Amino acid sequence: MQRICFLMTVIEGREKEYQRRHDEIWPELVAALRDAGVRNYSLFRRGTTVIAYAECEPDAATAFGKVGATEVNARWSAWFQDVLAEHLGPDGGLIEAAEVWHMD
């Protein structure tokens, strides 16, 4: 299992819409995340910065790769193009934060 933390940026002025869309998250997207091995997934927002945390089996690349291959993820990602300013780095991968310390 791999813990991952990554960052996203909401377009300024679209914070309420970002929240609204997550208040109505699609059950089929949640199912795709679970089926791919994503667990304990949380999003936190401070201003326009979103901090995401998830635990992935066997690792983040595999789990999020499986999610990325689903039709529901393609629809969700397209739907968020008018809300997210940045969610992928220049290499096309998640904008990860390095783990400094962990307590079980």
Automatic annotation (TrEMBL):
GO molecular function: racemase and epimerase activity, acting on carbohydrates and derivatives
Name listed for the protein in its UniProt record: L-rhamnose mutarotase
GO BP term, pick one: rhamnose catabolic process
Tree of life domain: Bacteria
Taxon lineage: Bacteria, Bacillati, Actinomycetota, Actinomycetes, Kitasatosporales
Source organism (scientific name): Actinacidiphila alni
InterPro entries recorded: Dimeric_a/b-barrel, Rham/fucose_mutarotase
Gene3D superfamilies: 3.30.70.100
